Amino acid sequence: MISGYGPVPASQRPDPAVAYWETEAEQYYREHAGSLGTDRLVWCPEGLDESQAHLLGDVAGQRVLEVGCGAAQGARWAAGAGAQVVGIDLSFGMLSVGRRLGSDGFTLAQADAAALPFADSAFDLAFSAFGALPHVPSVADVYAEVARVLRPGGRWVFSTDHPFAWVFPDSPDPAELWVNHSYFDREPYFERAATGELAYTQYHATLADHFTGLSRAGFVVDYLAEPEWTKSAAADAEWTAWSRPRGALVPSTIIIAAHLPESGQAAVKPSS
Ligand SMILES: C[S@@+](CC[C@H](N)C(=O)[O-])C[C@H]1O[C@@H](n2cnc3c(N)ncnc32)[C@H](O)[C@@H]1O
Does the reported pTM lie above 0.90? Predict the structure, then answer.
């Protein structure tokens, strides 16, 4: 496997990400079943669980979309809490694991987060726990789509890689926390098989990219969280770039909650 940073030809998007999640779906679920569970919404490797965090509030009766739902643990949790839920993911393999775990009471659909197959204003709330965002070339495209399918006043709460984590090696060891990559470099990280095929891609969005994208999509940001490790977090070895010792020094996850203004209250959009 060859890895590095560099452009991904448009003709290969979003195939590398899909290929990875198709191949790794079963293995990913087995590896993380203990920390992600089957019907919990765990926001991040630091172990922040929605049952304690209450970032979404009461979802009962709401039309809820989970973006990049993977095996749909979050969607299952929301359905159990009384929401009408749809979970979307680009990977048929991840959705298959989700179906096997059970999809009674909610809908799973294969879709690209940047081209959602739903009508305008179809949902009251959208959320994502590391779904899709690290794997899309433009988070702004996803934010625009999420804004379109949310009703005025709708909320969007998501976790993803902390933008600053990009500058460090992908290591859990605090001794390796030296800046080895430019924060401003948007070229994605890739892994290429010996045959030359791209096997995995991960994109970088700076803090400004997130905020500008949200703002242009019409969102008003309510809060930003940088979760610290919880007592119930997974073992240090479970997630490659995460560990309790590393997490004690720098954040690796960012959580953002935003909402669309009610009709008639236009958000101020920045000009380009
Ligand atoms: C790290 S997993 C997160 C899923 C789940 N929340 C979890 O913690 O297991 C990332 C998910 O994003 C999905 N994904 C990647 N690119 C996507 C896209 N463009 N649209 C929708 N889903 C995508 C992958 O297939 C994968 O299931």
Answer: yes
